[in-house]
């Protein structure tokens, strides 16, 4: 990594201050996985379509594969690794396990983070609102009903 093509990213990730030199053209996904070694965030399509790379930036879902790291400057970022640190969020993860909403697990980090944003905005969502809230995430295993049931159990 050539220093002249880098900037210093200063942000908070999972409650911890981060200050790292990163390439100017890096995606947030690249920074998370390759520089910070937070590999819970997955790369699926690389085009912002599948939601496997979903993280929460300043309270909003983002597809980290197409989110420029430079736009994360000064932000608060939550990845799946940060979920277990917060009992409110950890209960979402447990509900997914308890309702069989985790099969291969590839989409689970993005689904759980999307559910956390949905529940923060709407603590008692309907099934239709849950489906809409999770709609940016693709799952090839469960058929989605178990995920809806998991989120519904928390409302």
Automatic annotation (TrEMBL):
Entry-linked InterPro entries: 2Fe-2S-bd, 2Fe-2S-bd_dom_sf, 2Fe-2S_ferredoxin-like_sf, 2Fe-2S_ferredoxin-type, 2Fe2S_fd_BS, Beta-grasp_dom_sf, Diverse_Oxidoreductases
Oxidoreductase among keywords: yes
Pathway field: Alkaloid degradation; nicotine degradation
UniProt KW keywords: 2Fe-2S, Iron, Iron-sulfur, Metal-binding, Oxidoreductase
Parts of the chain that traverse the membrane: none
GO MF term set: 2 iron, 2 sulfur cluster binding; metal ion binding; oxidoreductase activity
2Fe-2S ferredoxin-type domain boundaries: 7-83
Name of the protein in its database record: (2Fe-2S)-binding protein
Organism: Candidatus Onthocola gallistercoris
Lineage, top ranks: Bacteria, Bacillati, Bacillota, Bacilli, Candidatus Onthocola
